[in-house]
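User: Show me an example of a complex going from sequences to structure tokens.

Assistant: Sure. Here are the input components:
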Amino acid sequence: GNSVTQMEGPVTLSEEAFLTINCTYTATGYPSLFWYVQYPGEGLQLLLKATKADDKGSNKGFEATYRKETTSFHLEKGSVQVSDSAVYFCALSGLKERGGGGADGLTFGKGTHLIIQP
Amino acid sequence: SQTIHQWPATLVQPVGSPLSLECTVEGTSNPNLYWYRQAAGRGLQLLFYSVGIGQISSEVPQNLSASRPQDRQFILSSKKLLLSDSGFYLCAWSPRPGRRGTEAFFGQGTRLTVV
């Protein structure tokens, strides 16, 4: 079945540091990949996504590239801010059929708690 | 625009009591609907999903049930809560039919504490 593995943390960095959160996946077919962010006490918000190999998703200074050869989708940011402190989830879509959007929901990693210190 | 509402935001219930969490979606029709649970240190677990009224699929055996009485309403229930039901419950929706790369949109969550 589908699975997502990501570093759990907590990851503690100083403001303006470079961020990498690793994510690898196992899936059949051609999944789409996502990064979601969860701020304290809130639901999940989509941060970025990629739908095919070599696609790069980007938003708010964050980037991730869909690497089919290494089955990875690592999240990066060049200079983090205190406001980036949150839990980050890597996820993939559960496709029932090739090319279709899955009705069986997303498969998530366990989440990485990121703490940015001023 | 589409919005998703989930309530209550927090809930404290005694063991053995019933549960009803409600989720509604506005601004779209015929969505896929999902209930997830987030337990500390265990990430997000898909509990139920629904592709239409009265159509519920369960991902894991458990003490909970789900119903979809209307197109944009999804309810999570239990007849008797267990301590292990404590957690953060998230409702989500996605468009149907889904296209490649379609993401899910999440509600704000319900923090359930069973005491």
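The lines above are the inputs; the final block is the predicted structure for all two components together. The radius of gyration of chain A is 14 Å.
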